[in-house]
Design brief:
By secondary structure, the protein is an alpha+beta fold. Helix content is 47%, strand content 22%.
Length: 357
């Protein structure tokens, strides 16, 4: 008697355990045409805390021969009450052979234990073909050019017109800007070299060219006296380039050593004779004249170094307004050019996209 009660108790516990996990399966629709799709839904009801594992299929893997699994959806979990969960998995099926397929039970593992579902069937029907009228069958049509649709091209057309107008405006502004004489206001950097340094550089140049001027005394004395006159203008502020030799000597008598002035007088007189009277000076005389000029420069030079001066042009109010207007026009030309280029690129890109549709 006790053994029977124990067996009954164990049987009740097993039935209660089995009742806690329930696997349902359904298919919709049960009949499809060749190539159509059907949804196989598998759901398992279990206690909270349990883990369910559904069958896994790859793309186009056969569920049974002739029936393929196209897609496996994500599991959907819902709470049903009394600490129960319902997890649903959807499989998308298809078939390309017309027949009645037997679908075996779907086994779901809950905490590692398998629970099978009931059996199902899927009927696949073929497309009816009227074999009595074969002339009604037509081959596939060739690729056709879609009809012209103005609504697709209208925005691109008007954007193209706008881009052309912007380009025309840019060209007009450029011509206006080009025809006006530009106001170039550059800051000039002027290097002031002391008078004695410039004079000595010129004399060194005369010495270097003396070999080429061996038979051109007029050129030699012209360059030497011009160097001296330029030095006198910059050093003493007298208009030596416009004075005669006598006027220069008279101007210097009150300022410098008389012996030096006498040497300069001899130089200037010799230069006048060479230039105007075709006088021929000896080589030692030419060397002595140059030495006199060098000695005079070294004696009268000022102790000063080269300086740099920055000269900024002074613009009138009218020039400032013109300059400001040109700056505005240049900025406007730049912005309009960028806008026109951007519009053209956008139109070309959109036109290519429309043509490829």
């Amino acid at each position: 008697m006790k053994r029977t009660e124990i067996l009954l108790l164990l049987f009740g516990v097993c039935m209660l355990s089995l009742a806690q996990v329930k696997v349902d399966v359904s298919i919709d629709p049960q009949e499809i045409l060749v190539g159509e799709q059907s949804r196989l839904t598998v759901s398992v009801t279990m206690k909270e805390g349990q883990t369910a594992q559904f069958p896994i299929y790859k793309y186009a893997e056969p569920l049974v021969p002739g029936v393929e699994v196209l897609e496996v959806g994500a599991p959907d979990t819902a709470r049903t009450g009394d600490q129960q969960l319902k997890v649903t998995q959807v499989y998308t099926l298809t078939s390309f052979d017309d027949t009645l397929y037997y679908l075996p039970p779907m086994e779901v593992k809950v905490d590692g234990k398998s629970y099978p579902s009931k059996n199902l069937a899927l009927k696949v029907l073929t497309i009816e073909i009227d074999t009595l009228h074969p002339n009604q069958f037509f081959p596939p049509k060739t690729v056709q050019t879609p009809p012209f649709d103005w609504s697709e091209w209208a925005p691109l057309f008007w954007l193209s017109v706008l881009a052309l107008l912007l380009m025309a405006l840019v060209a007009y502004l450029y011509v206006r800007l080009r025809d006006n004489k530009p106001i170039i206001s550059r800051i000039r950097i002027i290097k002031h070299v002391p008078a004695h340094q410039k004079a000595m550089q010129a004399i060194e140049k005369i010495k270097a060219d003396n070999a080429d001027m061996a038979y051109d005394q007029k050129e030699y004395y012209t360059r030497l006296t011009d160097t001296l006159r330029t030095y006198l203008e910059e050093r003493f502020g007298i208009q030596a380039m416009e004075m005669t030799s006598g006027e220069i000597i008279e101007q210097l008598r009150n300022e410098e050593d008389q012996s030096k002035i006498e040497e300069l007088r001899q130089l200037l007189e010799t230069a006048d004779l060479v230039k105007f009277a075709k006088h021929s000076a000896l080589l030692d005389e030419r060397g002595r004249n140059m030495a006199s000029v060098v000695d005079f420069i070294q004696t009268t030079k000022r102790d000063e170094q080269p300086t740099i001066e920055k000269v900024e042009p002074q613009l009138t109010d009218s020039e400032r307004r013109t300059r400001r207007s040109r700056t505005i026009i240049i900025t406007l030309i730049t912005l309009l050019s960028l806008a026109a280029v951007a519009l053209l690129v956008y139109v070309i890109w959109q036109a290519a996209a429309v043509m490829l549709i």
